[in-house]
Amino acid sequence: MNLPTRILGFWQGRRIPLAILLLTRQPVRLAVALAGISFAGILMFMQLGFRDGLFDASVTIHRLFDTDLVLISPRSTSSVSMASFPRRRLVQAMAAPEVEGITPVNWGLLLWRNPETRGTRSILALGFEPNDPLFTDPELAPKARVLTQKGRVLFDAQSRPEFGPVAEWFRAGRTVESEISGTRVRVAGLVGLGTSFGADGNLLTSSETYRELVPNTPPGSIEVGLIRLRPGTDPEAAARRLQAQLPDDVTVLTKEGFIAFEQNYWRTSTSIGFIFTLGAAMGFVVGCVIVYQVLYSDVSDHLPEYATLMAMGYKLTSLLGIVAREGLLLAAFGYLPAYAAGQGLYLLVRNATQLPVYMDTTRAMTVFTMILVMCMASAFLAMRRLADADPAEIF
Amino acid sequence: MGSPAAIHLEGLSHWFGSGGMRRQVLQGVDLTVAPGEVVLLTGPSGCGKTTLLTLVGALRQVQAGSVQVLGCQLAGASRRDRQRLRRSIGMIFQGHNLLRCLTAEQNVQMGSDLLPALGYRARRDQAREWLRAVGLGDQLHKLPHDLSGGQKQRVAIARALAAHPRLLLADEPTAALDSRSGREVAELLRRLARDNGCAVLMVTHDPRILDVADRLLRMEDGHLEEGGAPAVQPLATLAVE
Predict the structure, then answer these.
(1) pTM of the model
(2) A85 in the same domain as A50
(3) Domain residues for A166?
(4) Is A25 within 8 Å of chain B by CB?
């Protein structure tokens, strides 16, 4: 049978769309069901969005680095507690033939004084040699030149407003000065990096200024070493070779490994991932209960009609099919508003928190799958009620 | 005799309840209905008429005796066999049992949808044809909710006929119809029986339609008695129930 005949056959063989009629002829119940499913979907979108946003946001800075390999201290646990290691190790790495360039980076959370309210708040500060490449973004290099002057910082314009109206003042042409750990600094430019769960704001400065801001830093100690490899080098293999050559007071990671290291901390060493996953699971359960209620009462209400259909010669499986199709339709029509609301809420969250919470395809699919499973599981449970449809009782 | 009898019952007995509450409703019923024959069954309520219908309609497991419907032995038949047989049996219930969410036309089409050989459009046209035949050609798109009791019953009759049954079981189908349309429906049922060799077994108390029957049966306490040739006069008293 060729395709057109088959399509024609399907069209010819179609029947009264009972599932859709059963649902739509009771608009109030349908609305309740869809509202419930949408609510569950929104809950899942929010919780999973926050969770993924968190993991994503924790590596906002990590992604920006212009590097193939990263040296860190084995004692470092995350971006909020980076331990130092001797800068010598990075220079030693330079000796390897595949290494093209290095950038030593100081990394620490420092106390920034809000120039307006005079309150302090911890900010992530990165110190580097202004002439060294740091980020892949080419706009940084010209801006970094001003850092050669002592006491100058580049302020992240996307930092949370609690750090003060630094960006507005700077753009308005004012001289913005503040204090970091008691040392006066001047904002010499703005960069756009983005906040993370670990750091509400960022600033860049020179290694020289950084050492002044953190007076007890031993000279020649850094927290992060960036290593750029010659084109065509396999980062994984190079990382293994370097790790073997260098003493074990440093850990060699690829850039992906560095990102994974940070995400892994938030995933496993804090309860945040668990909490948000649990939140999504709650949404799932709430949705299940609502859909089950709706489908169960729907089947119960129509029991004599289902029994009539059985008496007419309809198979039990075709009746089960009707309930399954109802579940499928509820899933599809409940998902759409949840998706739209999810988009809106993500926008709201982005504006309020600067967290990178976006609707990605994977999550959209995950939530749809959850809703589908929820509806089909409920339909499956409601089908058991059909066993009570005894056609002999309807005469 | 090429084709088998539409219904052939031998020693059919049936009990309800169990233990001390066990009560026999059918006591060794014998009955043969020929293809195309119209048989009317009367009797006081609770005498087992409806039980007989559900057994013949393959809706209940046979407990004792032999039940052959359209050549198929129902004693010991599987669920699947009974379901398949039900497709060849049209049923009209005491309550109309229409699907509330479907229009009159769609309800009838639920019956013609059981005919897989026909295309959607043909089945729909057929549904309309049947509705016209029961006098509801202008009510195609009304929901059962908007139809009168008599109209609903007529839709139910159209639905039963739409599946091209070879046997029609009806439980007081004309009770809710006025005398004119009750008469029409009875005539229609008879015409169908004649045209398609479709047998009819109908429980009724309606004295106005007794004359469409080829044979009248009377049931009393689980026993079946031949009522002989249709005689309107003495049976008129049965309408009081």
Answers:
(1) 0.72
(2) no
(3) 74-249
(4) yes
